[in-house]
Amino acid sequence: MGIASKVREFFWPLLDPLKKKEFKPFTTSDLTVKEGDLDKCYDLTLRYYDSEDERKKAIESKSTIFISAIGFVIAILLSMATGLLLNPKIQHGFLTSFSILMWVIIVIYFCRTVWFSIRALEKQEYHTIGHKDFIAGSSDYRKKLITEIINKTRRNSKAINLKVDNMVMAQEYFKRGIVAAVIYSLVAGIYGLIFKTNWNCYGIISKVIPALSANWFPFLNAACLLINIAIFALLCVRDRKRNAGEAKTEAIKR
């Protein structure tokens, strides 16, 4: 990937198309499970099917939340931009132009977020387990049923993976919109603090700089460093205890 592609990907990521793979269905001959393990195999197959179904529901639920929440934010931003442009009392300057530019960028990013969220909700070809799968008679009934569920789950995985990719893209554009909002807030706040207030900011800066060069400042840096190290150590100990507890729980379950 060249520099231009990396820059474009940073500001405007694109969804890579899924690689097309030929679907080769499982057959009863591919199922080499012993007869005594078929019940366990059937149970695991149903869990596999249910886990993919839960993954699909979680993605669609998150997409719905994104659409409702970000759609509301977009409406507010457009209303603010329209009011700013149509207000004759507003003096057009750097802050006004910068605000409009950043609002447009944020709205574009959020619109892309909603777009990919809607794509994650699009109707896809989805295979479900029906009554025909259970009432069909066969000499290898359990093996036939297991292979049918596996094949349908594998077919559904392609549609679910596409939903996941769209949801990932929605999150990527949402993160870029948040970063743009933070940049706008910082620039607007600093600009307003320096040029729109009556207090002498230059005098404060001239007092802060000598204070930073005082003899006590290195000790303050050392204290901050020690506090950060202590917090990091506490977090590591907590994570280690949590991992040990989870491992102990898994050992008990086994």
Task: Give a verbal description of the structure.
With 254 residues, the chain is mainly α. The chain folds into 2 domains: 23-197; 201-254. 76% of the residues lie in helices and 0% in strands. The chain is built from 7 helices and no strands. The protein has helices spanning 3-11, 38-86, 94-120, 131-135, 141-195, 201-212, 217-253. Helix 2 (38-86) packs antiparallel against helix 3 and helix 2 runs parallel beside helix 5 (141-195). The two termini are 46 Å apart.
Q: Please mark out the parts with pLDDT under 50 across 5 or more consecutive residues, or reply none.
A: 249-254
Strand content: under 5%
Gap from first CA to last CA: 46 Å
**Biggest sheet character:** none
Radius of gyration: 29 Å
**Whole-number count of domains:** 2
Quaternary state reads single chain
Estimate the global geometry from the Cα principal axes. elongated
Overall average residue pLDDT? 76
Helix content: over 70%
Secondary structure class reads mainly alpha
**Number of extended strands:** 0
Discrete helix count = 7
SSE string, helix = H, strand = E?
A: HHHHHHH
